[in-house]
Amino acid sequence: MTTLAFAQTSALQTVRTVDDLRAQVAAWRQKGETVALVPTMGALHDGHLALVRRARELASRVVASVFVNPTQFAPHEDFDRYPRDEAGDAAKLVSAGCNLLYAPTVREMYPEGFATSMAVGGPAEGLCGTFRPQMFGGVALVVTKLFLQALPDVAVFGEKDYQQLMVIRRFTRDLDIPVRVEGLPTVREADGLALSSRNAYLSADERARAPELNRALVEAATALSAGVDAGAILEAAKARITAAGFGTIDYVELRDAETLEPVRRVERPARLLAAAWMGKARLIDNVPVAVGPVPAE
Q: Are the C-beta atoms of residues 153 and 33 closer than 8 Å to each other?
């Protein structure tokens, strides 16, 4: 049996190896306890803590992972400057009732000679899959490893990264991984801005203008719920986002809520998704679009 080499950080047990993680999970399971996993890249905020609190409702024990995953970043992206604060993250996790922090090194996750990659299609196509083509293969790889390392009963992810959530649900089903994938609605600031670790990149002026992304989506979603053609409404949303001071708009698109296939009219539950740049921050957001009354001819 592996001897558990725990590091104590803000009273939260922290493990850094697969062996120690599995030993602790096995000890819980011997007592008949269930396990939930909350995968994160750290720089935790209230959105992450809401995932932990939801996980506590779903299982006896909660493991949160903190790992900035290099395989989902392209060379020109922000892997090196992505915010990191493990001590602060541990303190926040304690406050939310987390039982164990799993904080592996890159070498632990991807040992010397590592030669496996994953390709995903379906909901990974288009949207962020177009603008960050390496991302979802890297997400699928690291999440699959985390599932196999922790062997949780349930894993909780936020709907802020809606396409990512759909990709994870798809490959979990496709690969018959026995983990229930739970989604939690986006946690927002009072002015509607979706909580994100990358919000730290915003200047004070940019932060003041950033909520317009969500406002534009909410207004567009209300119009789209009537079943009208999306074309003009999406263009109006893009114009509003640009007028708010955003730079490049990667996309504003209407997709089926389950398959993420493009749709022109809302005839079943849909999702309106957007990604746009405010200064150095690439902000993503999405809102549900319900099926409303059929418009009069």
A: no
Active site residue 48: yes
Backbone φ and ψ of 112, nearest 5°: -55, 130
Rounded distance, CA 293 to CA 270, Å?
15
Domain of 172, CATH number, reads 3.40.50.620
pTM of the predicted structure, to 2 decimals? 0.93
Same domain, residue pair 17 and 102:
yes
Which residue, among 254, 238, 259, has the nearest Cα to 291 in the 3D structure?
254
- pLDDT tens-digit series, residues 80-106: 999 999 999 999 999 999 999 999 999
Q: Is there a single domain that holds both residue 203 and residue 180?
A: no
Q: Is residue 189 domain-resident?
A: no
Q: Which domain holds residue 213?
A: 197-289
Residue 1 has pLDDT above 50, yes or no: no
Label the pairing between strands 7-9 and 12-15.
antiparallel
Q: Given the residues 18, 48, 49, 153, select the one marked as catalytic.
A: 48
- Measured at the alpha carbon of residue 31, what is the angle toward residues 17 and 177, in degrees to the nearest 5? 55
Amino acid 190: pLDDT: 98
180-204 mean pLDDT: 97
First to last CA, the chain: 71
> How far apart (Å, rounded) are the C-alpha atoms in residues 90 and 83?
14
Q: How many CA atoms lie within 13 A of 280 on its CB side?
A: 13
Q: Which of 184, 205, 236 is the last residue of a domain?
A: 184
Last residue of a domain, one of 163, 184, 205: 184
- Give residues with Cβ within 8 angstroms of 111, minimum separation 6: none
Among residues 149, 150, 186, 146, the alpha carbon closest in space to that of 165 is found at 186
**Tokens of residue 107, six digits:** 């070498």
Same domain assignment for residues 106 and 250 = no
